């Protein structure tokens, strides 16, 4: 129902001060907002984008800075969001990123604190901006690096820029944006031999590696359920080179299962995100805002499940009206992504336009 303003009859009413939570009918409450700041990117990772890129969204359809900041304020101050992750596309391509981060840091959550601010980035150009971003209020970063091998990185991202990605990780560690996390998507026959190298690279730097199971969100030819590298495959590969033991703390809504890893000299934590083989939808506390102003209650929402806030925002609606439509979009959130259901359909929007 993109753009519809019909609210479900069973949607819980707002409190007298207009505040609501982003609850759904399965008892989950969204506290973590993923905001896509652009659908554009300067890399072309094979599992995410075709070589020629995609049809970028026209500027008039995307939210400008004021619109973005207003929706962040509604999310944090009226809807119970406590953590924001900026993503894309490549969020560093948004020139006003520091301004948006500073505005978000000035908000106050329902607990009276500034929201936690994180970013997922490919790191291109981060080394130059890391201090400005930290000063603006950025708390943490995840930097994507699927291999440390320069030739393989160039093939995987179709750009010869592994040095920039490594410089970004080093700069983020030096700036104290800790814990610095490194995201690695593992694909069969492509970088599954890089698992140990990536773990060693992160242990040496004190960065936390996050292995991510590849999901059906990029070019359809790039993902086959029967051939994908699962979390168990990743753990088996790690166990050949490292001692592993589960981290002994409650996981809560975190997508990664955490493992203590040591090579006898260095120790650290590695996370494995088993979105496909062991979905964690029952504990999901996330909601997503696309760069063109649509709410996606799930990464895998179908086009028909998206709710656009943009027209309401541009029609002079009040914060409470916008908050009510956002709450309605979350109220209808499905119980899970259904990747293993026989009728599963890959979302029309690519990952870069949803916000990973
Ligand atoms: N451009 C930034 C980056 O690469 O970090 C942010 C956007 S990217 C879509 C966010 C994360 O999604 C990255 O860590 C990327 O590796 C991951 N990703 C992209 N396509 C994916 C897929 N098909 N399956 C699993 N993860 C994917
Ligand atoms: Fe760009 Fe990130 Fe997609 Fe790679 S994964 S093409 S860096 S948006």
Automatic annotation (TrEMBL):
<dbReference type="InterPro" id="IPR050105">
    <property type="entry name" value="MoCo_biosynth_MoaA/MoaC"/>
</dbReference>
<feature type="binding site">
    <location>
        <position position="144"/>
    </location>
    <ligand>
        <name>S-adenosyl-L-methionine</name>
    </ligand>
</feature>
<keyword id="KW-0501">Molybdenum cofactor biosynthesis</keyword>
<keyword id="KW-0342">GTP-binding</keyword>
<dbReference type="GO" id="GO:0006777">
    <property type="term" value="P:Mo-molybdopterin cofactor biosynthetic process"/>
</dbReference>
<keyword id="KW-0411">Iron-sulfur</keyword>
<comment type="pathway">
    <text>Cofactor biosynthesis; molybdopterin biosynthesis.</text>
</comment>
<feature type="binding site">
    <location>
        <position position="85"/>
    </location>
    <ligand>
        <name>GTP</name>
    </ligand>
</feature>
<feature type="binding site">
    <location>
        <position position="47"/>
    </location>
    <ligand>
        <name>S-adenosyl-L-methionine</name>
    </ligand>
</feature>
<feature type="binding site">
    <location>
        <begin position="286"/>
        <end position="288"/>
    </location>
    <ligand>
        <name>GTP</name>
    </ligand>
</feature>
<dbReference type="GO" id="GO:0046872">
    <property type="term" value="F:metal ion binding"/>
</dbReference>
<comment type="function">
    <text>Catalyzes the cyclization of GTP to (8S)-3',8-cyclo-7,8-dihydroguanosine 5'-triphosphate.</text>
</comment>
<feature type="binding site">
    <location>
        <position position="181"/>
    </location>
    <ligand>
        <name>GTP</name>
    </ligand>
</feature>
<protein>
    <recommendedName>
        <fullName>GTP 3',8-cyclase</fullName>
        <ecNumber>4.1.99.22</ecNumber>
    </recommendedName>
</protein>
<feature type="binding site">
    <location>
        <position position="215"/>
    </location>
    <ligand>
        <name>S-adenosyl-L-methionine</name>
    </ligand>
</feature>
<feature type="binding site">
    <location>
        <position position="298"/>
    </location>
    <ligand>
        <name>[4Fe-4S] cluster 2</name>
    </ligand>
</feature>
<dbReference type="InterPro" id="IPR010505">
    <property type="entry name" value="MoaA_twitch"/>
</dbReference>
<dbReference type="InterPro" id="IPR013785">
    <property type="entry name" value="Aldolase_TIM"/>
</dbReference>
<feature type="binding site">
    <location>
        <position position="48"/>
    </location>
    <ligand>
        <name>[4Fe-4S] cluster 1</name>
    </ligand>
</feature>
<keyword id="KW-0456">Lyase</keyword>
<dbReference type="InterPro" id="IPR007197">
    <property type="entry name" value="rSAM"/>
</dbReference>
<feature type="binding site">
    <location>
        <position position="41"/>
    </location>
    <ligand>
        <name>[4Fe-4S] cluster 1</name>
    </ligand>
</feature>
<keyword id="KW-0949">S-adenosyl-L-methionine</keyword>
<feature type="binding site">
    <location>
        <position position="284"/>
    </location>
    <ligand>
        <name>[4Fe-4S] cluster 2</name>
    </ligand>
</feature>
<dbReference type="InterPro" id="IPR013483">
    <property type="entry name" value="MoaA"/>
</dbReference>
<feature type="domain" description="Radical SAM core">
    <location>
        <begin position="25"/>
        <end position="245"/>
    </location>
</feature>
<dbReference type="InterPro" id="IPR058240">
    <property type="entry name" value="rSAM_sf"/>
</dbReference>
<feature type="binding site">
    <location>
        <position position="45"/>
    </location>
    <ligand>
        <name>[4Fe-4S] cluster 1</name>
    </ligand>
</feature>
<dbReference type="GO" id="GO:0061799">
    <property type="term" value="F:cyclic pyranopterin monophosphate synthase activity"/>
</dbReference>
<dbReference type="Pfam" id="PF06463">
    <property type="entry name" value="Mob_synth_C"/>
</dbReference>
<keyword id="KW-0408">Iron</keyword>
<feature type="binding site">
    <location>
        <position position="34"/>
    </location>
    <ligand>
        <name>GTP</name>
    </ligand>
</feature>
<dbReference type="Pfam" id="PF04055">
    <property type="entry name" value="Radical_SAM"/>
</dbReference>
<dbReference type="GO" id="GO:0005525">
    <property type="term" value="F:GTP binding"/>
</dbReference>
<comment type="subunit">
    <text>Monomer and homodimer.</text>
</comment>
<dbReference type="InterPro" id="IPR006638">
    <property type="entry name" value="Elp3/MiaA/NifB-like_rSAM"/>
</dbReference>
<keyword id="KW-0479">Metal-binding</keyword>
<comment type="similarity">
    <text>Belongs to the radical SAM superfamily. MoaA family.</text>
</comment>
<keyword id="KW-0004">4Fe-4S</keyword>
<feature type="binding site">
    <location>
        <position position="89"/>
    </location>
    <ligand>
        <name>S-adenosyl-L-methionine</name>
    </ligand>
</feature>
<dbReference type="GO" id="GO:0051539">
    <property type="term" value="F:4 iron, 4 sulfur cluster binding"/>
</dbReference>
<dbReference type="InterPro" id="IPR000385">
    <property type="entry name" value="MoaA_NifB_PqqE_Fe-S-bd_CS"/>
</dbReference>
């Amino acid at each position: 129902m993109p753009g519809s303003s019909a609210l479900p009859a069973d949607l819980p009413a707002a409190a007298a001060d207009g505040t609501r939570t982003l609850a759904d009918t399965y008892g989950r409450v969204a506290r973590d907002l993923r905001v896509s700041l652009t659908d554009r990117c300067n890399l072309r990772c094979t599992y995410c984008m075709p070589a020629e890129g995609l049809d970028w969204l026209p500027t008039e359809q995307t939210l400008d800075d004021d619109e973005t900041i207003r929706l962040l304020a509604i999310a944090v101050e009226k809807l119970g969001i406590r953590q924001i992750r900026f993503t894309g596309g490549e969020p560093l391509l948004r020139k006003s990123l520091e301004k948006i981060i500073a505005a978000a840091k000035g908000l106050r959550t329902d607990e009276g604190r500034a929201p936690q601010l994180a970013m997922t980035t490919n790191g291109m150009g981060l080394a130059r901006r890391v201090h400005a971003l930290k000063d603006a209020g950025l708390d943490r970063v995840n930097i994507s690096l699927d291999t440390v091998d320069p030739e393989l990185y160039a093939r995987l991202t179709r750009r010869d820029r592994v040095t920039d990605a490594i410089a970004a990780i080093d700069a983020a560690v030096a700036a104290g944006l800790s814990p610095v996390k490194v995201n690695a998507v593992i694909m069969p026959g492509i970088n599954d031999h890089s698992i140990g190298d990536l773990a060693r690279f992160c242990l040496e730097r004190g960065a936390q590696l996050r292995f991510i199971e590849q999901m059906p969100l990029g070019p359809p030819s790039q993902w086959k359920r029967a051939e994908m590298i699962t979390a168990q495959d990743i753990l088996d590969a790690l166990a050949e080179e490292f001692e592993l033991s589960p981290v002994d703390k409650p996981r809560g809504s975190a997508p990664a299962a955490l493992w203590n890893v040591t090579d006898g000299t260095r120790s650290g934590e590695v996370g494995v995100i088993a979105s496909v083989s062991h979905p964690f939808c029952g504990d999901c506390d996330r909601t997503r805002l696309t760069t063109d102003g649509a709410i996606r209650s799930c990464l895998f929402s179908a086009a028909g499940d998206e709710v656009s806030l943009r027209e309401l925002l541009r029609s002079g609606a009040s914060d409470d009206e916008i908050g009510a439509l956002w709450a309605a979009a979350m109220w209808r959130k499905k119980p899970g992504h259904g990747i293993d259901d026989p009728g599963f359909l890959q979302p029309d929007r690519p990952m870069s336009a949803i916000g990973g």
